[in-house]
Amino acid sequence: MPVSLHHIVIDAHDLPALSRFWAEVLGWRILSEREREIVIGPDVTAPVGICFMPVTDRKVVKNRLHLDLTSAAEDREAEIERILALGARRADIGQSGAESWTVLVDPEGNEFCVVRPKSTLIG
């Protein structure tokens, strides 16, 4: 049997705060909370979740991996505003302004994008 994706792991300086931010952004819930690990997901049977692990150092460079989020086209701007109200910030990583995505950073500076809706994983 081939391997499958189980968790996306995000290092966190403030483990409880960052995991709760992402749970709110995604409409997920806390599935497991331990001293050195918090897991969020839509439910315990979901194929993939996000696991937050504590680190003592702060993020200082652009992520090598980031999440792309999407919503219905008519909800996109309202969703960006909702995410900003939860504690995200807009980020300038050299965009031209013509992109079909908006770059944001979470409360600890991890970049992520809100992309235009698509019906497939490519294109």
From TrEMBL:
VOC domain location is: 4-117
Q: Name one Pfam family in it.
A: Glyoxalase_6
- SUPFAM superfamilies per the UniProt record, alphabetical: Glyoxalase/Bleomycin resistance protein/Dihydroxybiphenyl dioxygenase
Q: Which residues cross the membrane?
A: none
Give the highest taxon in the source lineage: Bacteria
Check the record and name the InterPro entries matching this protein.
Glyas_Bleomycin-R_OHBP_Dase (IPR029068), Glyoxalase_6 (IPR041581), VOC_core (IPR037523)
Under the heading PANTHER family, the entry gives: CONSERVED PROTEIN, HYPOTHETICAL FUSION PROTEIN
Question: Under which name does UniProt file this protein?
Answer: VOC domain-containing protein
**Source species taxonomy:** Bacteria, Bacillati, Actinomycetota, Actinomycetes, Kitasatosporales
